[in-house]
Amino acid sequence: GWHEGLATSSGGIAAVWWANRLDPASEAVGRVGLGVDASPGLETAAISIAGHREDERRHWQVLFYGPSAEVIPQLLALKDGLDFGPVGLDPSSPAGALIPDLKTTGFEVTEITGRTLVQAWGSLYAAVRDDLGRHVGDEVLTQAIRDAKTAPSGDSDRFSRRRSSGDICPLVSVTCADHQLQTQPAESAPAFAWA
User: Fold this and answer.
1) pTM of the model
2) CA-CA distance, 180 to 152, in Å (whole number)?
3) In the chain, which stretches have pLDDT less than 50?
4) How far apart are CA 179 and CA 151, in angstroms?
5) Spatial contact of 50 and 180, defined as CB atoms under 8 Å apart
6) CB atoms within 10 A of CB 104
7) Which of 22, 58, 157, 191 is the most exposed place for a label (fewest CB within 10 A)?
8) What does the pLDDT read at residue 183?
9) Are 137 and 105 within 8 A, CB to CB?
10) Rounded to whole angstroms, what are the CA distances from 113 to 42, 48, 91, 101, 189?
11) CB-based burial of residue 26 (10 Å sphere; 0-12 exposed, 13-18 middle, 19+ buried)?
Protein backbone atom coordinates (compact mmCIF):
# COMPACT_ATOMS: atom_id res chain seq x y z
CA GLY A 1 0.00 0.00 0.00
CA TRP A 2 0.93 3.68 0.01
CA HIS A 3 2.50 3.54 3.49
CA GLU A 4 5.03 0.91 2.39
CA GLY A 5 6.12 3.22 -0.42
CA LEU A 6 6.75 5.98 2.09
CA ALA A 7 8.72 3.72 4.39
CA THR A 8 11.12 2.57 1.69
CA SER A 9 11.18 5.57 -0.66
CA SER A 10 14.73 6.53 0.34
CA GLY A 11 15.74 2.87 0.30
CA GLY A 12 18.47 3.76 2.72
CA ILE A 13 19.75 2.46 6.04
CA ALA A 14 17.82 4.15 8.85
CA ALA A 15 19.97 6.57 10.88
CA VAL A 16 18.77 5.04 14.15
CA TRP A 17 19.87 1.53 13.09
CA TRP A 18 23.30 2.82 12.13
CA ALA A 19 23.67 4.77 15.37
CA ASN A 20 22.78 1.64 17.34
CA ARG A 21 25.44 -0.45 15.54
CA LEU A 22 28.32 1.78 16.65
CA ASP A 23 31.23 0.14 18.46
CA PRO A 24 34.41 2.25 18.35
CA ALA A 25 36.41 -0.75 19.59
CA SER A 26 35.09 -3.10 16.90
CA GLU A 27 37.66 -5.04 14.90
CA ALA A 28 37.76 -7.85 12.41
CA VAL A 29 39.64 -11.09 13.03
CA GLY A 30 41.09 -13.21 10.25
CA ARG A 31 40.51 -12.75 6.56
CA VAL A 32 38.45 -9.78 5.44
CA GLY A 33 36.52 -8.86 2.32
CA LEU A 34 37.87 -5.77 0.62
CA GLY A 35 35.93 -3.36 -1.58
CA VAL A 36 36.84 -0.31 -3.62
CA ASP A 37 34.62 2.35 -5.12
CA ALA A 38 35.20 5.75 -6.72
CA SER A 39 33.13 8.84 -7.34
CA PRO A 40 32.33 10.13 -10.84
CA GLY A 41 35.41 11.51 -12.57
CA LEU A 42 37.57 9.54 -10.11
CA GLU A 43 37.70 12.60 -7.85
CA THR A 44 37.62 10.47 -4.72
CA ALA A 45 37.82 6.80 -3.91
CA ALA A 46 37.23 4.62 -0.88
CA ILE A 47 38.74 1.35 0.31
CA SER A 48 36.68 -0.59 2.83
CA ILE A 49 36.75 -3.89 4.63
CA ALA A 50 34.13 -6.22 6.01
CA GLY A 51 35.15 -8.94 8.40
CA HIS A 52 33.97 -11.16 11.21
CA ARG A 53 34.42 -10.18 14.82
CA GLU A 54 35.16 -12.61 17.64
CA ASP A 55 31.44 -12.52 18.56
CA GLU A 56 30.55 -13.63 14.99
CA ARG A 57 29.00 -10.29 14.10
CA ARG A 58 30.29 -8.54 10.99
CA HIS A 59 32.66 -5.58 11.11
CA TRP A 60 32.42 -2.74 8.56
CA GLN A 61 35.10 -0.10 8.19
CA VAL A 62 36.37 2.46 5.70
CA LEU A 63 40.17 2.25 5.67
CA PHE A 64 40.85 4.96 3.13
CA TYR A 65 38.91 7.84 1.59
CA GLY A 66 40.72 10.31 -0.63
CA PRO A 67 42.20 10.83 -4.09
CA SER A 68 41.69 7.81 -6.35
CA ALA A 69 45.37 7.99 -7.40
CA GLU A 70 46.13 6.79 -3.85
CA VAL A 71 44.13 3.54 -4.12
CA ILE A 72 46.96 1.33 -5.42
CA PRO A 73 49.64 2.67 -2.99
CA GLN A 74 47.16 2.28 -0.10
CA LEU A 75 46.30 -1.30 -1.09
CA LEU A 76 49.99 -2.19 -1.39
CA ALA A 77 50.55 -0.80 2.10
CA LEU A 78 47.55 -2.70 3.48
CA LYS A 79 48.83 -5.98 2.03
CA ASP A 80 51.49 -6.17 4.73
CA GLY A 81 49.16 -6.30 7.70
CA LEU A 82 45.82 -7.38 6.27
CA ASP A 83 44.65 -10.76 4.95
CA PHE A 84 42.29 -10.18 2.03
CA GLY A 85 41.41 -11.89 -1.22
CA PRO A 86 40.31 -10.35 -4.51
CA VAL A 87 39.33 -6.69 -4.51
CA GLY A 88 35.60 -6.31 -5.06
CA LEU A 89 34.30 -3.48 -7.22
CA ASP A 90 31.59 -2.60 -9.70
CA PRO A 91 33.18 -2.53 -13.19
CA SER A 92 30.44 -0.29 -14.57
CA SER A 93 31.06 2.31 -11.85
CA PRO A 94 33.81 4.96 -11.98
CA ALA A 95 36.01 2.49 -10.06
CA GLY A 96 36.01 0.25 -13.14
CA ALA A 97 38.73 2.52 -14.54
CA LEU A 98 41.05 1.23 -11.78
CA ILE A 99 40.82 -2.42 -12.86
CA PRO A 100 43.79 -2.46 -15.31
CA ASP A 101 46.11 -0.84 -12.74
CA LEU A 102 44.91 -3.17 -9.99
CA LYS A 103 45.62 -6.23 -12.14
CA THR A 104 48.99 -4.88 -13.33
CA THR A 105 49.96 -4.36 -9.68
CA GLY A 106 49.11 -7.99 -8.91
CA PHE A 107 45.70 -7.69 -7.27
CA GLU A 108 42.91 -10.06 -8.19
CA VAL A 109 39.60 -8.34 -8.92
CA THR A 110 36.06 -9.60 -8.41
CA GLU A 111 33.70 -7.69 -10.67
CA ILE A 112 30.44 -7.14 -8.80
CA THR A 113 28.01 -6.35 -11.59
CA GLY A 114 24.41 -5.15 -11.83
CA ARG A 115 22.20 -7.73 -10.20
CA THR A 116 24.95 -8.98 -7.89
CA LEU A 117 25.52 -5.46 -6.59
CA VAL A 118 21.78 -5.10 -6.00
CA GLN A 119 21.87 -8.35 -3.98
CA ALA A 120 24.98 -7.22 -2.11
CA TRP A 121 23.26 -3.99 -1.11
CA GLY A 122 20.17 -5.93 0.00
CA SER A 123 22.38 -8.18 2.12
CA LEU A 124 24.19 -5.27 3.80
CA TYR A 125 20.91 -3.43 4.36
CA ALA A 126 19.38 -6.50 6.05
CA ALA A 127 22.51 -7.11 8.14
CA VAL A 128 22.42 -3.58 9.54
CA ARG A 129 18.66 -3.75 10.11
CA ASP A 130 18.88 -7.14 11.82
CA ASP A 131 21.79 -6.15 14.09
CA LEU A 132 24.30 -8.53 12.51
CA GLY A 133 27.26 -6.16 12.50
CA ARG A 134 29.13 -3.21 13.96
CA HIS A 135 31.03 -0.21 12.65
CA VAL A 136 33.61 2.07 14.26
CA GLY A 137 31.86 5.34 13.45
CA ASP A 138 33.70 6.46 10.31
CA GLU A 139 32.30 9.92 9.62
CA VAL A 140 32.64 9.50 5.84
CA LEU A 141 30.63 6.26 5.97
CA THR A 142 27.92 7.72 8.20
CA GLN A 143 27.65 10.71 5.86
CA ALA A 144 27.44 8.44 2.81
CA ILE A 145 24.61 6.49 4.45
CA ARG A 146 22.84 9.79 5.12
CA ASP A 147 23.35 10.93 1.50
CA ALA A 148 22.60 7.64 -0.26
CA LYS A 149 19.46 7.36 -2.29
CA THR A 150 18.43 4.25 -4.14
CA ALA A 151 16.34 3.64 -7.21
CA PRO A 152 14.13 0.62 -7.88
CA SER A 153 15.74 -2.22 -9.81
CA GLY A 154 13.23 -4.98 -10.49
CA ASP A 155 11.88 -6.01 -7.10
CA SER A 156 14.72 -4.46 -5.13
CA ASP A 157 16.79 -1.32 -4.85
CA ARG A 158 20.09 -0.26 -6.35
CA PHE A 159 22.31 2.72 -5.64
CA SER A 160 21.60 5.90 -7.55
CA ARG A 161 24.59 8.22 -7.64
CA ARG A 162 22.55 10.83 -9.50
CA ARG A 163 19.85 10.92 -6.84
CA SER A 164 22.21 10.85 -3.89
CA SER A 165 22.96 14.15 -2.21
CA GLY A 166 26.66 13.52 -1.65
CA ASP A 167 29.55 11.19 -2.40
CA ILE A 168 28.37 7.66 -1.63
CA CYS A 169 31.54 5.80 -2.62
CA PRO A 170 32.37 4.93 1.04
CA LEU A 171 29.02 3.11 1.31
CA VAL A 172 29.37 1.40 -2.08
CA SER A 173 32.88 0.22 -1.15
CA VAL A 174 31.57 -1.21 2.14
CA THR A 175 28.80 -2.97 0.19
CA CYS A 176 31.40 -4.50 -2.14
CA ALA A 177 33.57 -5.51 0.83
CA ASP A 178 30.59 -7.11 2.56
CA HIS A 179 29.82 -9.06 -0.62
CA GLN A 180 33.44 -10.28 -0.75
CA LEU A 181 33.22 -11.38 2.87
CA GLN A 182 30.03 -13.35 2.18
CA THR A 183 31.20 -15.00 -1.03
CA GLN A 184 34.96 -15.53 -0.71
CA PRO A 185 36.54 -18.53 1.01
CA ALA A 186 37.14 -17.71 4.67
CA GLU A 187 40.70 -19.01 4.71
CA SER A 188 43.66 -18.05 2.61
CA ALA A 189 45.03 -21.56 3.21
CA PRO A 190 44.45 -24.19 0.50
CA ALA A 191 40.92 -25.58 0.58
CA PHE A 192 42.17 -29.16 0.74
CA ALA A 193 45.22 -30.28 2.68
CA TRP A 194 46.04 -33.96 2.36
CA ALA A 195 47.96 -35.22 5.35
Assistant:
1) 0.89
2) 23
3) 1-10, 191
4) 20
5) yes
6) 9
7) 191
8) 93
9) no
10) 19, 18, 7, 19, 27
11) buried
